[in-house]
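Subgroup meeting minutes
Present: P.N., E.W., G.H.
Scribe: E.W.

1. P.N. recapped why we're keeping a running log of single-chain structure predictions: easier to compare across weeks, and new members can see raw inputs and outputs side by side.
2. G.H. added today's entry (151 aa).
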Amino acid sequence: MSSYRYTAADFSHLVIVVAEDDQHNIIDIAAWELADAKDAPKGLTALLLHGIYVDPSHHRQGIGRRLFLAAEQAICNHHCDGLLVKAQEDAVGIFIALGMNRLPVEDPLRHYANRLWKSAGEIVKFCTACYRRSVLGRDRLLQHNQNTKWS
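Output recorded in log:
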């Protein structure tokens, strides 16, 4: 898996959400920001999910799914048309299992090969009490961006 390097300026634009275990160790992280209009499907607004990483010792416990639900909630909060992911090849199946659909590569010079999309219409059902039940599980979720921190 390739690694990505972010600068301090990058972090000022990202919303970062982490899951902690009972000892306050970070076991999962997700990050997103408003997508550039050139990356979103034509005429639509999107949040760009930079990714979800789950510590391998915590795989298959639903933690990544809960952070994905947090990203879906952010779509509702920002009144975006959908969620966009530029996935690595080995992660495509995970995002498809989470209800995302492949987008066609319309501009090979601009578009990432594995762009996936989930429309707000498909997400809206998670912007209710079922979202709160799903996210408020045994792990604490923390969100941090330049202006906010909550738990």
